[in-house]
Recover the amino acids of this structure.
């Protein structure tokens, strides 16, 4: 807390922050512009300096404290150390650009405005982990940016930044662009690998983890597009220096994809740990319809929404959001004002997960549809009071390791939180039930009647 | 030896093993749907969840921490684990639904999910009665459902191929069928289509599921989604009895069950035998069941005044004996059969010996190129190896065919084969030759030329032994009743023919379906008796086989007890050196 009582932002003096991921440079996506502004210099330095060993890069990334920006927030440097020692098997880097979570649209900006930063990050990561092939798995709907990246990648190949003996060193690496076919589940890392291999996008169970048995059963690391774009910056600044930017628990720059009922939605680059209030009222210019704030979904549809009365002093880092039972996810807050019907909102979220579940595991396949059915019934005024508790119970039956991947957790997280935090709205939409509300509605022979009416 | 503790009982184990399979091996039942021991593990049904823990180790010393009683402190994984994916580790502690309420609830919850969109049309479903979903839902499932919505509708009655029909609504998406075509049969013809609750197995557009092993997907389908186009809606499981036996379509000797209702074979399904066919059975082995029911003979016939006329068995035996007795032994051709059992061929050898004729030979039925190096063989008979081991050689078809045409034989004694139908000779070639014919079906092309036609029991009606191409001796047992009283057959039937619920009787009594035929091991001694020769085996084929295995080295050890349900491997013998 500052002396005047306003909360201290973990992002520090964010107003004077200078953008690094998406600097304000005209035509930065073009190779010549990128190199003119120091592009590929970090890669050149690493390759030409005999004192820089691959492990040094990993250690810098580890020291920077960078966390994955794809939603799960796993420490990137630690993930890199999971790669086994090189053997005669090929090794792969999977670049996850299958950005398809509702409310998330920040990787797109990297691919559109600074693709070479991502390529440079890929090459540095490849050097650090002895990887010679990277697959950039991009969401199929991003056709324009795939075309743009393909063109820029071609330029980078011609200029010798990618391919055989990069910049005259003995380090070679290929980057392959791969277009997804429009399935959200293919953004799940193991599902992405299956999809890359030409199979159905069904997640694999773990262990074995990708580092042990990944793409084509070879050691693999999967990183998000934005995460890799941070790597050249870390190499440039040094890990320790980079770790001082933003919030302590997940330091660095962040792309905030602001959407919802704010005046100026869009992608903004600031340090991590921005106060939600700063983001909404300062960065985005306040509420679009002049209504009061009702809820914030801090990082994509799969993180639990937060009530407006809880956002005071909350900042965009997991430590802070964890206090109110939420996560930063993809750093893309969705802002909802008082006019929002939370039941309708939850129903729409449930519909997305019902439509996108791969259908492999029973609880997720059946549960997502069931939840949508119940939420639709409540939304249409046909719900019963006991439906609300049934939703919560189904949520409990679906997550917590009941399925292969984390999709079900992502599906029920927001639904459970919305029902718990905005229960009054759900109850208001439910007609009064003749049966007592009970979570044990089908627990015994006596209650079975009530369960089926 | 490393140990694992399951529900408080400690087991030793060896090597790398998965928890689910280990439990099943120990007789510990864990509900599951997608797991199949022959295929990869998808862990998608989520039914086999258990609680797994490991002894807690001190982070610094690496030693196991002990509690106040000196027992290791067990640290359980925070989440339930799918037991099919868990590798056993020394000291692992497992709690199943028997000891953990959490596991029990999770399994019940999972079944509630599984049944949410399942049509629950068990009353009209072919799988009902032996359906893993039905059985496990009753055993582990919830009492009712809280699902109050319209179920998802998917395609029904989809003909995936010529032999398999899909009811997509029943599918629980376990992917056993797609994994079968990917990993076992290798045709890769099935894949899951659509996403989420709408998905089901399907072929590529315009393709049909004509894998020669396609019907195995019906067997491994844990629900009634994949059904046999041929068997659909024909019979309920509990109306049929099943008899463990082997198929006789080719030389593999694949183990199978014959499913019989009212003395008619309605279907054939694989029976697990890891030494022969593992879990599988080719489609061609299954779709032959009609030959056991249709075109079957109605008692023996004797040629009188140029036409075949019905006779009783004694007359038929007498006729056959008279023909044998009156012919010049050197002008008698005995034809053994690779379709007939070892016992029957052995008795024929005895008979040929008794009348002083040359040793029998058999007609080979080879279709070059028909085999696939797996369960389908070029040889279309089940017992060529058995014949060889008895010293019965294949005939030189050209030589014998010519001799038959030249009228070199006065009498041909055919055991369970069809010289005309197999192309050995033409019907006209036999115009001046007497024929004693043991035959299965009235479609036998030699039948019109027979002088004495003796209906023989087929594999589903007899007791006997077959030796497959790899020298494995396997028993067959009667699956359906024939007319007449035969104590051996009745005993075998009483002890082996059981339905799904362990009752040994076919409760249907339509005498028309009982064929008037006899096993050759009953016919041949009777004929010998009429000739005044002693071919007496009062204890039936069991006694014959005992004699065979004790006198012929090539059959050593092949007693009925040793063969049991899975057969016994015979020692290799030099080709032609047998007998």
């Amino acid at each position: 807390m500052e002396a005047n009582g306003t909360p201290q932002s973990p992002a520090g003096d964010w107003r004077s922050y200078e953008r690094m991921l998406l600097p304000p440079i005209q035509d930065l996506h073009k190779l010549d512009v990128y190199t003119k502004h120091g592009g590929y210099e970090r890669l050149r330095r690493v390759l030409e300096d005999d004192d820089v060993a691959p492990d040094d890069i990993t250690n810098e990334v580890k020291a920077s404290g960078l966390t994955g920006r794809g939603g799960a927030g796993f420490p990137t440097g630690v993930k890199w150390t999971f790669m086994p020692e090189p053997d005669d098997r090929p090794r792969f880097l999977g670049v996850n650009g299958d950005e398809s979570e509702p409310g998330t649209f920040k990787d797109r900006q990297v691919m559109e405005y600074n693709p070479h930063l991502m390529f440079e990050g890929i090459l540095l990561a490849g050097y650090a982990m002895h990887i010679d092939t990277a697959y950039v798995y991009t969401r199929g709907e991003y056709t324009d940016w795939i075309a743009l990246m393909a063109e820029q990648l071609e330029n980078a190949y011609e200029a010798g930044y990618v391919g055989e003996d990069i910049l005259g060193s003995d380090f070679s690496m290929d980057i392959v662009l791969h277009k997804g076919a429009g399935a959200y589940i293919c953004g799940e890392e193991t599902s992405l690998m299956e999809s890359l291999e030409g199979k159905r996008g069904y997640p694999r169970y773990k262990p074995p983890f990708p580092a042990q048995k990944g793409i084509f059963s070879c050691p693999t690391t999967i990183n998000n597009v934005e995460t890799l774009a941070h790597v050249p910056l870390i190499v440039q600044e040094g890990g320790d220096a980079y770790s001082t930017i933003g919030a302590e628990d997940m330091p660095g720059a962040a792309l905030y994809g602001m959407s919802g009922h704010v005046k100026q939605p869009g992608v903004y680059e600031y340090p991590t740990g921005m106060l939600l209030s700063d983001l909404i009222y300062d960065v985005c210019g306040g509420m679009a319809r002049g209504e009061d704030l009702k809820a914030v979904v801090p990082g994509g549809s799969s993180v639990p929404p937060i009530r407006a009365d809880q956002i005071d002093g909350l900042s965009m880092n997991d430590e802070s959001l964890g206090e109110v039972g939420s996560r930063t996810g993809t750093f893309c807050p969705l802002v909802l004002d008082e006019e929002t019907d939370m039941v309708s909102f939850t129903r729409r979220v449930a519909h997305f997960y019902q439509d996108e579940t791969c259908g492999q595991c029973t609880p997720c396949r059946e549960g997502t549809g069931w939840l949508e059915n119940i939420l639709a019934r409540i939304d249409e005024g046909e719900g019963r009071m006991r439906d609300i508790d049934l939703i919560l119970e189904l949520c409990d039956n679906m997550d917590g390791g009941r399925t292969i991947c984390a999709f079900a957790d992502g599906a029920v997280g927001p639904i459970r939180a919305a029902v718990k935090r905005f229960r009054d709205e759900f109850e208001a939409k439910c007609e009064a039930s003749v049966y007592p509300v009970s979570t044990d509605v089908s627990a015994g022979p006596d209650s079975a009647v009530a369960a089926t009416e | 030896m490393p140990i694992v503790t399951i529900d408080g009982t400690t087991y030793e184990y060896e090597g790398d093993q998965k928890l689910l399979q280990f439990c099943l091996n120990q007789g510990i039942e864990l509900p599951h749907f997608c797991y199949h021991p022959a295929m990869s593990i998808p862990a998608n049904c989520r039914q086999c969840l258990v609680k797994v823990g490991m002894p807690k180790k001190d982070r610094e010393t690496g030693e196991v921490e002990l509690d106040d009683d000196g027992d290791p402190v067990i640290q359980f994984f925070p989440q339930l684990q799918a037991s099919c994916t868990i590798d056993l580790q020394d000291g692992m502690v497992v709690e199943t639904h028997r000891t953990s309420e959490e596991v029990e609830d999770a399994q019940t919850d999972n079944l509630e999910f599984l049944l949410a969109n399942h049509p629950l049309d068990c009353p009209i479903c072919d799988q009902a009665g032996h359906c893993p979903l039905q059985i496990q839902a009753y055993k582990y499932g919830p009492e009712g459902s809280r699902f109050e919505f319209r179920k998802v509708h998917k395609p029904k009655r989809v003909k995936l191929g010529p032999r398999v029909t899909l009811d997509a609504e029943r599918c629980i998406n376990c992917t056993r069928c797609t994994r079968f075509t990917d990993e076992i049969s290798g045709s890769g013809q099935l894949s899951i289509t659509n996403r989420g609750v709408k998905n089901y197995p399907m072929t590529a557009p315009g393709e049909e599921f004509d894998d020669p092993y396609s019907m195995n997907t019906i067997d491994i389908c844990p629900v009634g989604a994949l059904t046999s186009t041929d068997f659909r809606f024909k019979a309920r499981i509990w109306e049929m009895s099943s008899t463990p036996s082997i198929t006789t379509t080719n030389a593999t000797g694949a183990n199978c069950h014959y499913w019989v209702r009212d003395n008619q074979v309605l279907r054939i399904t694989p029976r697990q035998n890891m030494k022969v066919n593992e879990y599988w059975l080719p489609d061609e082995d299954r779709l032959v069941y009609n030959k056991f029911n249709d075109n079957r003979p109605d008692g023996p016939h004797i040629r009188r005044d140029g036409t075949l006329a019905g006779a009783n068995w004694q007359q038929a035996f007498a006729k056959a004996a008279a023909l044998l007795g009156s012919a010049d032994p050197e002008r008698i051709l005995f034809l053994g059969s690779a379709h007939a059992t070892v016992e029957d061929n052995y008795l024929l050898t005895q008979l040929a010996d008794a009348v002083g004729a040359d040793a029998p030979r058999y007609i080979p039925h080879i279709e070059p190129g028909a085999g696939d190096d797996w369960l389908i063989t070029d040889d279309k008979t089940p017992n060529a190896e058995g014949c060889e081991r008895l010293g019965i050689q294949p005939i030189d078809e050209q030589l014998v065919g010519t001799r038959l045409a030249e009228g070199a034989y006065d009498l041909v004694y055919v055991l369970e084969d069809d010289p005309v139908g197999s192309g050995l000779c033409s019907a006209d070639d036999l115009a001046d030759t007497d024929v004693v014919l043991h035959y299965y079906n009235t479609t036998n092309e030699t039948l019109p030329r027979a002088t004495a036609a003796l209906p023989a029991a087929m594999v589903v009606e007899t007791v006997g032994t077959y030796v497959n191409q790899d020298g494995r001796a396997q028993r067959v047992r009667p699956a359906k009743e024939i007319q007449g009283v035969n104590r051996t057959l009745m005993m075998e039937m009483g002890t082996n023919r059981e339905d799904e619920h362990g009752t040994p009787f076919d409760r249907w009594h339509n005498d028309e379906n009982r064929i008037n035929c006899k096993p050759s091991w009953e016919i041949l001694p009777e004929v010998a008796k009429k000739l005044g020769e002693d071919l007496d085996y009062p204890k039936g084929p069991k006694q014959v086989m005992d004699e065979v295995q004790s006198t012929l080295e090539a059959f050593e050890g092949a007693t009925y007890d040793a063969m049991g349900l899975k057969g016994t491997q015979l020692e290799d013998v030099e080709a032609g050196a047998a007998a």
Remarks:
- Chain A has 18 helices and nine strands.
- Residues 1-5, 436-453 of chain A have pLDDT under 50 and may be disordered.
